[in-house]
């Protein structure tokens, strides 16, 4: 089979999902030819760089405007430039002689019938298209949201959000005598904290702090200079190893990151979610008791994290809850 996976670099979550889907398809069928296409690069080869830069700026500097636009997009059922897009997609299908198309990026669903992996717990309207053949979702709440919006039940499969198999591998953890905290900024290199927060954690002798800044090299240099006691990592392909050795992950409430943490059985700490799609993911983390979400804007996040790190029984409960969730998804998501 020739399979196309359509994704987009709006953050790294959609790209990670595409990588996981490709990996699992090839595990089931080694003879399959799987090609991943950046939808924005293909549709707008000249403008794609500007589009992504604009998105990065809006998320990091204008989150209120981003959330407002996200809500407006959900209420607008129109599909802009559909004829033009459809022609280009037809050419794409012909070029790759595609037998099936998998979507890991919501806008694509509006232009093509496909298998769609929803990469957040919240099912935004952009994911829903009348001719989509199958929706793969992370939780029963996502399924119920789709049902309430008119999607027929036979089109929905609860599979978890796709993550690469390396996150399920067991690694022996070295006992350093310290609790290990991993801070991840997401694909845009956004650290969900202030410098005061980092300074308090870095001064705790019984805690080892590691920060992954992604592709944000400027932030990496700044943190290395200001906090020599913190291990600062830039872009890495070994996120799974850093997750597996950690006792707690401090991060944004991304759907992919949430299920990567579930796979590694590492409790989550979410500081003040601020993007629209993160709210549903954060609520999922709370409802399943696999982490803690700090909603209070004025709370002392460092003190709250230290309190959680000292509560071994609660951390162990969170790990067990993650193990129970992960049991149904650890052997691959492709039915």
- Helix percent reads 40-55%
- Beta content comes to 15-25%
> Residue-averaged pLDDT, rounded?
84
| Number of helical segments with 4 or more residues | 14
Overall geometry comes to globular
Q: What is the number of beta strands?
A: 12
Order of helices and strands: EHEHHHHEHEEHEEHEHEHEHEHEHH
Brief write-up:
The protein is an alpha/beta fold and 335 residues long.
Q: What topology emerges from the helices and strands here?
A:
Blueprint: E1 2-7, H1 13-28, E2 33-38, H2 39-43, H3 48-61, H4 63-75, H5 82-96, E3 100-103, H6 106-109, E4 115-117, E5 134-137, H7 140-148, E6 156-158, E7 179-184, H8 195-202, E8 207-212, H9 217-226, E9 231-233, H10 239-245, E10 248-251, H11 255-264, E11 268-271, H12 276-287, E12 291-294, H13 301-309, H14 312-326
Parallel strand pairs: 1-2, 1-3, 3-4, 4-5, 5-6, 7-8, 7-10, 8-9, 10-11, 11-12
Can you describe what's shown?
The protein is α/β, with parallel strands linked by helices and 335 residues long. Strands 2-1-3-4-5-6 form a 6-stranded parallel β-sheet, with helices on both faces. A 6-stranded parallel β-sheet has the order 9-8-7-10-11-12, sandwiched between helices. Helix 11 packs across helix 14. The radius of gyration is 20 Å and the shape is globular. The C terminus is likely disordered.
């Amino acid at each position: 089979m020739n399979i196309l996976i359509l994704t987009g670099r709006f953050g790294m979550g959609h790209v990670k999902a595409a990588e996981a889907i490709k990996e699992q398809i090839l595990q089931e069928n080694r003879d399959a030819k799987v090609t991943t296409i950046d939808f924005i690069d293909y549709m707008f080869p000249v403008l794609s760089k500007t589009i992504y830069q604009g998105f990065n700026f809006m998320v990091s500097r204008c989150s209120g405007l981003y959330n407002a636009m996200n809500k407006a997009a959900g209420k607008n059922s129109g599909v802009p430039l559909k004829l033009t897009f459809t022609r280009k997609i037809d050419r794409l299908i012909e070029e790759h002689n595609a037998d099936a198309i998998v979507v890991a990026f919501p806008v694509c669903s509006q232009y093509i019938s496909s298998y769609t992996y929803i990469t957040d717990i919240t099912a935004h309207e952009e994911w829903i298209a009348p001719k989509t053949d199958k929706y793969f979702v992370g939780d029963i709440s996502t399924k119920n949201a789709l049902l309430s919006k008119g999607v027929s039940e036979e089109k929905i499969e609860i599979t978890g959000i796709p993550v690469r198999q390396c996150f399920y591998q067991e690694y022996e953890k070295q006992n350093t005598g310290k609790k290990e905290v991993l801070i991840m900024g997401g694909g845009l290199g956004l650290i969900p904290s202030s410098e005061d927060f980092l300074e308090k954690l870095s001064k705790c002798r019984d805690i080892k702090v590691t920060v992954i800044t992604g592709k944000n090299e400027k932030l990496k240099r700044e943190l290395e200079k200001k906090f020599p006691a913190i291990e600062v990592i830039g872009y890495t392909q070994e996120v799974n190893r850093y997750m597996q050795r950690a006792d707690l992950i401090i991060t944004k409430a991304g759907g992919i990151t949430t299920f990567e943490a579930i796979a590694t059985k590492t409790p989550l700490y979410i500081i003040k979610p601020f993007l629209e799609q993160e709210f549903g993911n954060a609520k999922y983390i709370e409802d399943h008791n696999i982490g803690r979400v700090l909603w209070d804007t004025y709370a002392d996040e460092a003190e709250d994290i230290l309190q959680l790190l000292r509560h071994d029984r609660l951390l162990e409960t969170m790990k067990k809850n993650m193990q129970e969730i992960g049991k149904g998804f650890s052997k691959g998501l492709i039915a």
